[in-house]
Amino acid sequence: MNTSTLRPVSVLGTGIVPFAKYPDIPAPRIARPAVLEALLECRLPRDRLQKLFCGSALGGWMMGQRIARETGLTGLPVVNVENACSSSATAFHEAVVAIGSGLIDYALVVGVEKLSALGGGTLPLDGEDIEVANGMVMPALYAMRAQRYLHDGGYTAHDLAAVSVKSRRHGALTPYAQYREPVTVEQVLASRRVADPLTLLQCCPASDGAAALVLGPADGRHASIARPVRVLASHLTSGRFVSGARDMTTPEITVRCSAESYEEAGLGPQDLDVLECHDAFSIAELLYYEALGLCAHGEAPRLLHDGATSLGGSCVVNPSGGLLSKGHPVGASGAAQIVEIVRQLQGRAEQRQVAGARHGLTHVTGGGTAGFDHGACCIHIFGSAA
User: Fold this and answer.
1) Which of the residues 171, 236, 259, 335 could staple to 177 if both were Cys, CB 3.0 to 4.6 A apart?
2) Residue 344 and residue 382: Cα distance in Å, rounded?
3) Residue 21 burial (CB < 10 Å; 0-12/13-18/19+)?
4) Which domains does the chain have, with CATH numbers?
């Protein structure tokens, strides 16, 4: 759906909890502080909320209702969304559509995940999938993408490691990041090898966490909201099936989704000041520089080394530290990206603030299955009210 034909929607409140491991806290209780922070921030009376959208990939049945019980919001209609890593970004999209179409005025979006409940290891994938049945796991998939990209471009493992160094440098400034210690290229390369050429510090950590957002119409009715941020585009798409060999270095789903999102927003990549992308592995950030149109194919390492995507650069990527440093509580990651971009556009990102940020983007993909880049891709573009 092209949301540019709907009435404008704004983000009115944000909430997030530090990403970490909370083995003794149930997932709905992990989400509670994020929900309460978002409600307090927007100062919207609870009885004005009309719907709750909850994204969680692995949290089990009725996660939204369980969160409502923890936060005193029972009785609201609840929509629970599972779309792999895109779960809470998809929940946000559904809220934008509901408000933009006039069906409701105010909604709460929550993303939550508790990966510590899985006991460690790679994320469980569908055993009926032919590639999974033959041993495919996500680190191996991204390692193959990295091998191909390094070979084709004449780059080295040092170029991949530099992504993690940047992410940790940004994460050190983010109070809700799971890992906040800067690292060097040498430390990244010396960390345990997971799937050649990827080492441990080039793989996102499994995390527990939650984020929440309050949305409403961008028509001034919420006069008490000091700095609402406008949703300029909200786009969700799925992968296209390709049998046989496919180009592992060009994620078609992100190329297509970003082009459609830019058209919807009336902006281009050159207009972005800050963005959060799905950097589950170091190679992913480089591939997404290109897929999102920040540079030409094969040029991503040069953009990174030039400092364009670091704080102080022309288009800052993952100022939160991204999934590599902030952590990746799968179902919560999309909502957490939006929290970061909204706060950046409001000028309240503290030490990691991107100066003069007016336009931002969030990008998250979800799921890997045979014949697809990814199962889902969700991109949002935002504009400051100033």
Assistant:
1) 171
2) 10
3) middle
4) 3-116+207-218 (3.40.47.10), 131-205+230-384 (3.40.47.10)
CA atoms 142, 143, 144, 148: torsion sign: positive
- Distance CA(88)–CA(176), nearest Å, equals 18
Lowest-confidence region among 22-31, 109-118, 309-318, 365-374:
365-374
Pairing of strands 208-217, 9-16: antiparallel
Residue 134 predicted with pLDDT over 80: no
Q: What is the pTM of this model?
A: 0.94
pLDDT tens for each residue of 263-284: 999 999 999 999 999 999 999 9
- In the Cβ-directed half-sphere of 44, how many Cα atoms lie within 13 Å? 30
Cα separations (Å) of 363 from 32, 85, 88, 166, 323? 25, 11, 12, 18, 12
Question: How far is the C-alpha of 228 from the C-alpha of 217, rounded, in Å?
Answer: 10
Q: Are strands 107-114 and 51-55 parallel, antiparallel or unpaired?
A: parallel
Biggest CA pair distance of the chain: 58
